[in-house]
Automatic annotation (TrEMBL):
The organism's place on the tree of life at top rank: Eukaryota
Higher taxonomy: Eukaryota, Fungi, Fungi incertae sedis, Blastocladiomycota, Blastocladiomycetes
GO molecular function: catalytic activity
Entry protein name: Enoyl-CoA hydratase/isomerase
Recorded family membership: Belongs to the enoyl-CoA hydratase/isomerase family.
Family annotation (InterPro entries): ClpP/crotonase-like_dom_sf (IPR029045), Enoyl-CoA_hyd/isom_CS (IPR018376), Enoyl-CoA_hydra/iso (IPR001753), Enoyl-CoA_hydra_C (IPR014748), Enoyl-CoA_Hydratase/Isomerase (IPR051683)
Pfam families, sorted: ECH_1
Length: 299
């Protein structure tokens, strides 16, 4: 279910198709394929605004979120990092919380790898469909950074042990068998061309349910999960957690490690703290994989 010619030609950071099933399903496509659909200020603002619009629309019943190109989303655009953080106002809208707590149900269609903040977007959705060869990865520590803003949702959805393993080792978490086995992905397709149609079909199965019953069920299950944790809401909304996230993000962005990691990323070289043999390799092997998108300034 590819975007039409007009939609494909637009430079908008987010493509929104409001025509599916007479407007009951909106298809949201991250449209920064040349930058791996990395999250900059314009994309974050557009996504938050679209979710808010959907919440006010009496017709829309569910949102489908996907990426355009090889990647679902490669995470935060390093050039926009400072703008994506507000250290003064704890009530500002957070992209991942807005998606996670939206009144409108959501389906993620993982068309390719999700890195960094892309993992947060993927896990923030209610239901998830993925192509077989996709994977999740948190490469932040390789760049001297901390996955602060997505930390709460990663821990909440994957559990502490898996979240630590993913974040500290920067290893890939494949769709098969890991995400399927963990119940994170509910349907797998063989290639990217099939993932949006499969997600739309899943969305249609949600639309068949009574609106009030669907919303009440989501609210009940979320409340049960929250009660089991002994918290007062989604982890990202707990005041103490939000404070820790903002402090960690601000401290990280001002650190020498972050400065060196970003410079190394942009220069396609290993950072100074890498083992000598990795430094000697330069932008080869693992360094090439992590530096591939250096020219696009994202993580």
């Amino acid at each position: 279910m590819a975007a039409g010619p007009a939609a494909a030609a637009t430079d908008a950071p987010l493509l929104v198709d409001r025509t599916l099933d007479d407007g009951r399903i909106w298809l949201l496509t991250l449209n920064r394929s040349r930058a791996g659909s990395s999250i900059d200020t314009s994309l974050a603002t557009s996504l938050i605004s679209t979710v808010r619009d959907a919440e006010l629309d009496p017709v829309v019943r569910i949102l489908v979120l996907t990426g355009r190109g090889k990647y679902f989303c490669t995470g935060m655009n390093l050039g926009s990092a400072g703008q994506l953080l507000s250290t003064e106002n704890d009530d500002d809208a957070d992209l991942f919380d807005v998606l996670r707590c939206s009144r409108v149900p959501t389906v993620a269609a993982l068309n390719g790898p999700a890195l960094g903040g892309g993992v947060g977007l993927f896990l923030a959705c209610d239901l998830r469909v993925a192509t077989r060869d996709a994977y999740l990865a948190l490469p932040e520590v390789r760049r001297g950074l901390v996955p602060a803003r997505i930390g709460p949702i990663v821990v909440e959805m994957l559990g502490l042990a898996r979240a630590k393993s993913l974040a500290i080792t920067a290893a890939r978490m494949p769709v098969v068998p890991d995400l399927v086995g963990a119940g994170i992905v509910v349907q797998v397709v063989d290639d990217a061309a099939q993932v949006v149609p499969a997600a739309v079909e899943m969305a249609r199965s949600v639309v068949l349910g009574a609106l009030g019953a669907v919303l009440a069920t989501r609210k009940l299950f979320d409340a049960v999960a929250v009660h089991a944790r002994g918290e007062t809401g989604a982890l990202g909304n707990v005041p103490e957690v939000r404070k820790c996230v903002r402090q960690a993000f601000a401290k990280m962005m001002g650190s020498e490690e972050a400065a060196e990691g970003i410079q190394a990323f942009m220069a396609r070289r290993a950072p100074s703290w890498a083992p000598q043999e990795e430094t000697a390799k330069g932008a080869t092997g693992a360094a090439v994989a992590s530096a591939k998108w250096a020219g696009k300034a994202k993580l």
